[in-house]
Design brief:
The structure holds two protein chains of two kinds. Chain A has helices at about 70-75, 110-115, 135-145, 150-165, 180-190, 210-225, 235-245, 260-265, 270-280; strands at about 30-40, 45-55, 60-65, 85-90, 95, 95-100, 105, 120, 195-200, 230-235, 245-250, 255-260. Chain A is an alpha/beta fold. In chain A, helix 4 packs across helix 5 (about 180-190) and helix 5 runs parallel beside helix 6 (about 210-225). By secondary structure, chain B is mainly α. Chain B starts with a helix and ends with a helix. The chains are: A alpha/beta, B mainly alpha. The interface of A and B includes residues 125, 127, 132 and 145 of A.
Chain lengths: ~280, ~210
């Protein structure tokens, strides 16, 4: 089955290793790359031959009507879903599938995990672990994935809790927190893994309106003080404007417009983008 | 009604010896059933397809055949092994298939988002089960495990079939020998009550403790 006509040396490790002058993470290797990505759920095609490149440190916001494939992109990167066809590369490394001898084959789980370890995700529904304290939620992965000592993980967690303004809640269980507080803990939990790429999936959509700003301000600060690559799915257009380097308009599993926030929000070129923005703004 | 305090006093030590067997079978049976049941439930999630199907049919088979038949089958197959040992093992295995269903329901009740959050943090599967999924699943499962433990307690008289003298059989035998059924069964009933009431209190406390967060 022919998958793509662009299978080159990066996708095929047997052909050539990445050149030494282009190590992973260098500016000219994209942090994220989708190549001819196809995702179908049964009969329904969510992504239809998508090509997308995100540079390291770039903040990209995905907008578009629901069902247009934005969230699917984040879930594919987190390997919560798998591509039907095509490829995803992270720092030039194939994530789930690669070309070997001209065939599309799965990447071994170990290499997959090495890559996803550098990716963090914050979910619409927070998904904190209800059986652990706030501190436990944040220290769990650093201790058991990164191998940090308990003391080290706690110190780091307390530091992050201070950054999100919740250090006094360290001992509470998530059920005692408001939605906005839970989401800030979820952000701290993702940051505790020191991700190179952060995926934000409609992180304020489940919140009461008055709690949205606290969460967005935390994220603005993260955007302002780190060089984490961010892919953001949001309906908060002002936030998208504030933090994004680039805005992608999705419709029907394709990117129909790709531009700077100024251009997209003030002078959208595509009629579909214009009507979408009219509806949400 | 015929009641003789003297007969009752004679019956008590015999019944308590029977009760010791009942208790032993229940406690060890529960232990086997809770551990094995959990193992079955988890394996049914993690095993590859064909192995999972085999396990499924094995547990279905055990669940769908009567306990007495299993007791007799094992007893006559494994001659030379003590009836009590066989009884405990068979009761434990039998109930493990029921408990596995409870665990399964508890595991399925853990929201998908919990698995996804664990995956997003790169938690290995073993950690995800141990720290995230099972603590939440068990909380939902404990009450029905308690019910099965009580049911097991009440099934122990079936051990009579393989010549194990537990509480009810002891009462029956004492009653027959001395024509003192009233004393024997009244005391047997009281002993059951005295044992199950604290147990149910314990289960309830455990439930409350687990519901804490």
């Amino acid at each position: 089955m022919p998958t793509t006509d662009r299978g080159d040396e990066v996708l095929d490790p047997s052909a050539a290793a990445p050149p030494a002058d282009r190590p992973a993470g260098s500016p000219d290797v994209p942090a994220v790359e989708f190549r001819n990505a196809v995702k179908r759920f049964g009969e329904h095609t969510v992504l239809d031959g998508l090509d997308l490149t995100v540079r390291g440190g770039e903040r990209v916001t995905l907008i578009g009507p629901s069902g247009s494939g934005k969230t699917t992109i984040l879930r594919l990167l987190m390997t919560l879903e798998e591509l039907t066809d095509g490829f995803v590369l992270v720092d030039g490394q194939p994530l789930t599938h690669e070309l070997r001898d001209g065939r599309r084959v799965p990447v071994p789980p170990r290499r997959r995990k090495q890559i996803t370890r550098r990716i963090g995700m914050v979910f619409q529904q927070f998904n904190l672990f209800p059986n652990m304290s706030v501190l436990g939620n944040i220290t769990e992965a650093p201790m058991h994935v990164l191998g940090m000592s308990r003391a080290e993980a706690r110190e780091r967690a307390m530091d992050l809790l201070r950054q999100v303004g919740l250090e006094q809640k360290a001992g509470e269980h998530p059920s005692r927190l408001s939605g906005g507080q839970q989401q800030r803990v979820a952000i701290a939990r993702a940051l505790a893994m020191d991700p190179a790429i952060l995926l934000l999936d409609e992180v304020t959509s489940a919140l009461d309106p008055e709690l949205v700003d606290d969460v967005l301000n935390v994220l603005r600060r993260v955007a302002g003080t780190t060089d984490i690559t961010m892919l953001i799915v949001t309906h908060e257009m002002q936030f998208a404007r504030d933090v994004s380097d680039r805005v992608l308009m999705f419709d029907g599993g394709r990117i129909i417009e790709d531009g700077s926030p100024e251009q997209i929000f003030t002078a959208p070129g595509n009629e579909r983008t214009r009507s979408f923005l009219r509806a949400v703004l | 009604m015929i009641w003789s305090w003297e007969r009752a006093a004679e019956a008590l030590p015999v019944l308590l010896e029977g009760f010791r067997i009942t208790l032993l079978a229940t406690v060890l049976g529960t232990l086997i059933a809770t551990v094995l049941g959990l193992a079955i439930a988890v394996l049914r999630r993690v095993l590859p397809g064909p192995a999972r199907a085999v396990l499924h049919w094995l547990t279905e088979f055990v669940r769908m055949t009567p306990l007495v038949v299993q007791l007799l089958f094992a007893y006559y197959l494994l001659t030379g092994v003590s009836g009590l040992v066989i009884g405990i093992a068979v009761i434990g295995i039998h109930y493990s298939t029921y408990m596995a269903e409870s665990y399964r329901a508890g595991i399925e009740a853990v929201p998908k988002g919990q698995w996804e959050a664990a995956a997003a943090l790169s938690l290995p599967a073993s950690r995800t089960w141990r720290d995230v999924v099972l603590p939440q699943a068990l909380r939902a499962t404990i009450p029905s495990l308690g019910n099965y433990a009580v049911a097991m307690f009440k099934d122990t008289p079936l051990l009579f079939a393989i010549s194990v003298v537990e509480l009810v059989t002891a009462a029956q035998q004492f009653g027959a020998r001395n024509f003192a059924y009233t004393e024997a069964f009244t005391l047997a009933g009281l002993i059951f009550l005295l044992a199950s009431y604290p147990t149910s209190l314990l289960v309830r406390r455990l439930e409350k403790h687990l519901a804490h967060y």
